[in-house]
Design brief:
Oligomer: heterodimer
Distance between the termini of chain B: 47 Å
Low-confidence stretches of chain B: 49-56, 349-357
Number of helices of chain B: 12
Distance between the termini of chain A: 36 Å
Helix content of chain B: over 70%
Shape of chain A: globular
Number of strands of chain B: 0
Mean pLDDT of chain B: 77
Number of strands of chain A: 0
Radius of gyration of chain B: 26 Å
Largest interface: A-B, 52 and 37 residues
Mean pLDDT of chain A: 80
Helix content of chain A: over 70%
Low-confidence stretches of chain A: 95-108
Number of helices of chain A: 9
Order of helices and strands of chain B: HHHHHHHHHHHH
């Protein structure tokens, strides 16, 4: 959940088009957005390019096109998520894969690079074997640490639908871990 | 499998993930690159020579002001000319009715024409109240498309409460803001209870929306109390008044937790596997949530007793988050039990048919 100060800063950006506030927003969200992209692509440089493009697109949207924005952080995550999907789509030679259209594939993600002990490593393996939508929601909720209300606009679902999806994903994860034991 | 263990593994993944995060220096390098990208973007758009406006000699700010003024004039004409007359002609229209859109449009115009932010907040709150009345009317009737109408009223209520919160935060600091903050706090609780009643009458899918709307009403209430807290620091309201408000919040949480714990205790044990099978929370995790929420409540009370009202409010906020989750979970169980009841009514008839055959 965004703090009161963050909400005030978002207001300065969205309504007052305050560039200094956007610089603060950039510095605060940069690490978060880089991590978000890194868990979905296979190269650090690519993650940095996509994050830069996303920040630029949000900036253009607000400061040049003067569009109305409601949730700044959600807009940033939605754009970067779309950029990642576009990247995979281009790599597939413009082939439209319905699965890629719906979720962000992370079969070669940098999540695999994390140094984890045996237990956490086994949970990660199970997560990677789950359906794409389960994998994505578990990553958003527990690795990116976004709350339900922040995830809802990113996935373009209602909070209720996100809650249900999350519970299903957790249930599938528990079941799969149980099967492997 | 225990959820605690799983949460621990997630925590480890999150820590490893955070350990690989870029440093502040990396962020500064990236920001410099971002500034270069902006320059390149601006240079590219100027070069492409976008067609110049006929009114290029009018400064950008003045153009925006003229545009804004024109919109206001048109809205005034619309409201004075037709809107107000239409609203007074159709005050009791419900979502889904033909003229309901007209009623909403006039309300929107009324908000646009009200200028101090506290005035807008007051109007949005009043309109949220109208949506609650509409919900009650729809829930207590056998009107056609009942669910769709109820869903629309709930969605509109949610939007009004979000606007109330946002306008309240934008408002300056004056007596009028203090008054409206107190009203928002009181009304949000009242509306939350009304939503609860409407939710009981609603079908499963809409109950989710009702829960979301309740979250938003609570968030508006917390924002209102936060304003009172700041005002007390500035000495504009008395300490006693602030204490009364925060104490009421803690009581509210305590009684709601008692209700939810009672509801959990009355759910038949064999309903849990059924809920878990469709991805619902486990019995253990629900009781853990109850305990955590109680812990938050106790911490809130402790801080309250020692004068830490903002910390008490922060614990209240976390407690309410858990409470909402618990209430949502009990609703899932209610749905399962309701489905069982329906199945129990249908099964004997089927047996009878089979015996006749």
């Amino acid at each position: 959940m965004r703090s009161f100060i963050q909400k005030i800063r978002d207001f300065r950006i969205i309504k007052l088009r305050d560039q200094d506030a956007y610089a603060e927003f950039y510095r605060e969200e940069h690490a978060h957005i880089i991590q978000f992209v890194k868990s979905r692509v296979d190269r650090v440089e690519l993650a940095e390019d996509l994050a830069n493009e996303a920040f630029l697109e949000v900036w253009r949207y607000i400061f040049r096109e003067r569009q109305a924005v409601q949730h700044l952080q959600a807009l940033l995550f939605t754009i970067v998520r779309r950029l990642v999907i576009d990247h995979y789509r281009k790599r597939k030679g413009n082939e439209v894969d319905p699965e890629i259209m719906e979720t962000v594939p992370d079969s070669r993600s940098m999540l695999k690079e994390l140094e984890l002990d045996e237990e956490a490593g086994s949970v990660r393996q199970v997560i990677e074997s789950l359906r794409d939508e389960y994998r994505e929601i578990l990553t958003l909720r527990f690795v990116d640490e976004l709350d339900i209300r922040e995830i809802a606009p990113i996935l373009n679902k209602s909070s209720g639908a996100v809650r249900v999806l999350l519970h299903r994903a957790l249930s599938a994860l528990r079941k799969e871990i149980g099967n492997r034991k | 499998m225990r959820d605690e263990w799983l949460l621990q593994q997630f925590k480890k993944m999150n820590q490893a993930y955070r350990a690989s995060a870029p440093t502040k220096a990396d962020t500064e390098v990236a920001y410099t690159r971002f500034l270069r990208s902006i320059e390149q973007y601006d240079a590219a758009t100027h070069e492409s020579g976008s067609s110049q406006s006929l009114f290029f000699f009018v400064p950008q700010l003045a153009r925006a002001t003229i545009r804004g003024a024109a919109v206001v004039v048109v809205v005034v004409m619309l409201v004075v000319g037709t809107g107000a007359a239409m609203v007074s002609a159709f005050p009791n229209k419900l979502p889904g009715d033909f003229f309901y859109g007209v009623k909403l449009a006039a309300e929107r115009a009324q908000v646009s024409l009200t200028f101090p932010a506290e005035g807008k907040a007051r109007l949005e709150l009043e309109f949220a109240g109208r949506r609650v009345e509409e919900m009650a009317t729809i829930a207590g009737s056998s009107i056609t498309n009942r669910d769709e109408r109820l869903a629309e009223a709930v969605a509109k209520f949610r939007s009004h409460m979000e606007q109330t919160e946002s306008q309240l935060k934008n408002a300056g600091r004056a007596q009028a803001v203090l008054d409206i903050a107190k009203t928002v706090d009181r009304k949000s609780v009242e509306y939350g209870a009304a939503l609860e009643r409407a939710g009981v009458e609603a079908s499963g899918a809409i109950r989710e929306d009702v829960r979301d709307a309740q979250d938003v009403a609570q968030s508006a209430s917390i924002a209102a109390v936060t304003i009172l807290l700041e005002e007390q620091r500035e000495g504009r309201i008395s300490l006693e008044e602030l204490q009364r408000t925060v104490r009421a919040k803690l009581w509210e949480l305590e009684s709601a937790l008692q209700v939810v714990a009672y509801r959990l205790a009355t759910i038949p044990g064999d309903a849990y596997p059924e809920i878990e099978a469709v991805g619902g929370p486990t019995l253990v995790s629900l009781y853990q949530d109850v305990n955590t929420a109680r812990g938050e409540l106790e911490a809130g009370k402790d801080f309250f007793a020692h004068g830490g009202y903002d910390a008490a409010l922060a614990h209240y906020r976390t407690g309410v988050g858990l409470l909402n989750h618990l209430t949502w979970a009990t609703t899932m169980y209610d749905n399962v039990l309701a489905e069982r009841k329906t199945a129990a009514v249908v099964t004997p008839e089927m047996d009878e048919t089979e015996s006749v055959e």
